[in-house]
Every structure is written in C-alpha cells, then in structure tokens.
Amino acid sequence: MGAAIVAVAVDGIAAALAARPGATLVVGVRREEGGLAPGAGAQAAEGVLGIDATALAAAVLPSGHAAFATGAAAVPSADGVRRVVIADLGELAAGVAPAAETLFGAALAASRAAEGPVVSLLGLEASDAAGLRLVAEGHAAGGWRYRAEARPASEIVVVARGAADAERDLERARIVSDAVAWVRTVVETPPNLLGPGEFAEAVTAFAAELAGDAVSVAIWDAEALAERGFGGTLGVGRGSARPPLAIELRTEGAGPGLVTALAGKGITFDSGGLNLKRDPGEISWMKTDMAAAASVAAAVVAAAALGGSGPLHAVLPVAENMPGGGAQRPGDVVRHPDGRTTEVIDTDSEGRLVLADALAWLARGRPARLVDVGTLTDSGAVGTAFWGCWGTSGGVAEELLAAGRAAADPGWRLPLHASYSELLESRVADIANCSVDAPDTGQLAATYLRTFTGDVPWVHIDNGSSAWLERDAAPWPAGPTAAPVRALIEFLSPS
Fold it and tell me: 265 an active-site residue?
C-alpha cells in the first residue's frame, strides 16, 4: 500500500523532524489584501523551530499569485540543513479556513516538491477532521509515482491540533489514498501489461487486500456475457485477441438496505476499432480508457473497507477495442440484456455500448439508485478540474456533487434535453450509438445511455477530461488523477 500516515501534536514537531533525517517540512502561508500573512502552521514553524515562514515565502514563491504555487528552500537546522516547502493557500481572510480543494491541492503540490518523508503543518490550517483528512490525502497523492523506486515519501506526518483524536480520521485517509493510488497505478500501466484478464486479476487482488471478504468478486467470461445478453461488450471485444469479460462486485454493507448499483466503462485499450483514431497524440494514451471501471471498482472496495455503506452491486464490462479481422463494423447491430438493440454508427463510440449492457442488466434488479462512470468524451466536463454528470434524478446528482465538494473531487451537472434523442434514431435498431451528422458530445452520450435505465433514479458521470491529464494542470501533474474515485467513496460511505 501507500506511504504511512501518522499525526503528531504541535509540541511534537521538533521531535518528528529529528527522528526523520532528510524529511521535508511543509508550511502554508495565506494572502490577505494582496500581502503574505502567516497561518497557524507558519506561526507554529516560527514558535517551535524559529523559521520565519512568511519571509521565506516572499523569497521562494513565484511572483504573482498562481493556484497551488509552492516554493522550496534549504534552511539551517540543528541537524544540518532542512528542506522547507512553502505552499501558497491563496486569498484568505483572517480566521477563515481554506476550502477543501485548497487544502487537498496545496498538500498535493507540496508533496510533489518534497524529498523524503514529509512533516506537514498544513493540518493546522484545517478547521475540522475532514480538512485534516484532505491534507493527508493530498500529501499521499503528491507522493505517488508509478514506479515504486521513484516515490519520494516513505512517511507522512501531519501536525494536528487534536493529534490524539486523529487516528480514526487518518485511517480513513489511508484507505482513500490507497484507493486513489491503486487507480492511478492501473491506469498508468502499459496496455501490453494490462488487458481485460490482467485488469480483472488486479481488481480481485485489490479487493482482497483492502477489504478482505467484505467484497465478493465474480468474473464473467465471454460465454457468460453471451448468456446474459451483453452484445455490446462482445461486439466491442471482437477485434481483439484478448477476449472481453465483465467484473461483478457485491457487498452487503452495514448501512441502509437499499441497493446502490454502479457501472464502469473498462476499455483497456481503445484504438477506435475500424473507425481508427487518427490523432497519434490521442491514441498514445488510450490505455487510460478503463479509468472509469478502475474508479468504480476502487470506490466499492474502499466503501466496503470503511463500512457505513448500504448494499452495493457493480458491473464493469471490460474489453479491448481493436481493428482485427473479426472487429465490429460500422452498421452492425448489437443486442443488450433488456432486448434493446443498437446500430453501431461509429466503432470509436464503444464505451457507451458496454455501459448500455451494464445499465440494462443492473436496471432489471430495480436498485434504489444507479450510477455509471465512463471516459466517453474529451469534453465530458468543464475543463480538467471537473467531471461532468447528467441524469434523471436531481437528488442522486446533488448527492454526488456534494460528495465531490467534500472530497475535493468536484463535478458539474449538465442538463439532458429530450430533443437530442431524435439525433440517435435508427432505421434498423432501437437506437444508434451516435449521430450520423451531428458532432458527438457528452450530452449525446448521456441521451443514449438514458434509454437503458428505465425509471430507476440514474446519474451518468463522464470523467473523460479529468481522469487523465495530457499536461500538468495544477495541482496535478500530467497523467492519471483517479477522478472521480474520491467523490464516489464519499458518496457511498459518507464521512
């Protein structure tokens, strides 16, 4: 699992640093009326260690104000030289605690600039246990690297006002951080090493490691998919030498007895199929097209490990979309578990085909609420900072959005409009997977999926623009972010 996370009180800062040679000290400063001002952490740094964090910030922070800016300096200390990272907490009035996104983002950015173990004073800026957890989770996310030998932080020490009472909260942070790290690792794994079978093995192993027997995992092979009517998933996987499958996760839960059902798109590599992607810059990172299934799997496992969720039932259709000799053709018609049929206009709009299978299957069980996640469109959200969502239930959508705000993993709700359905009409099937002559959008993908959910309260999340970053987007580095797994965990098992 990830780095160890522990808490100490303010009077333990010096001892924590002395016990960890080479540790980085992280201190936050705020801006008030355009100038730098010390927060609680900066005051502690001066009072305990004699470090004038405000003066240091003026010297090392970039000129002007940039979101999640950091600066590093070498400061003399009793045991030699101490690396200190200053995190800019932005414009804050005196006595006002930073927002959830600020705490998480500042900690993430600071850990990216850290070396060795981290002793963080950002926890002193938090006003409650939720803020302390976000600081710990941000530091853990900042210290993640795909290759274990490149990970800088072996331990995260969070200085807290109520350190004696922080263990339970930091245990939650550890579980959430392990889920985030697992998602980022499988999403970053090269596609030759992670086909459908390897992904199923990774989900099974992670569930056993983090949640023990609290989650049951079943793998449906191609024969089982055919028996269940998963024609969309079988069609998408036909061109690959690696057969498709589906992963089913169930947990009884300890909370209310109403079932929450979830589906996640698991395309382990998306070439576009016969509608081959032409942009080499895009196809080069299509190993990430299973990020949604990874996030759903990790959220279910983490929720089971945390307790407090109701019964959960997830189905993750997994396939590789390749242009082989048996590949699905534009014009083909596939049948889904509810008997509905789809005309395949574009083989590169494959994610909605596999999600349609899962949604139709899950909706038959009449869950209390149904959520699906897919990297369906690059414009599925408002830039890189948000995931987008559409749905038939304002209540479920607001629960998800509130969970995202609390977890510093924000989303944005967009409207569904009935007029879009006429763009998906087909002469040979019940519906087409995209329009023949209108640009494809997240709105159109959601309109398609809506037809497979019946009257079950449903929300679709598109994390296509936020689960993977082609370039740095503060506070995240380029690469996988695990969005929206933290929001999903908070949704399934509220803190």
Answer: no
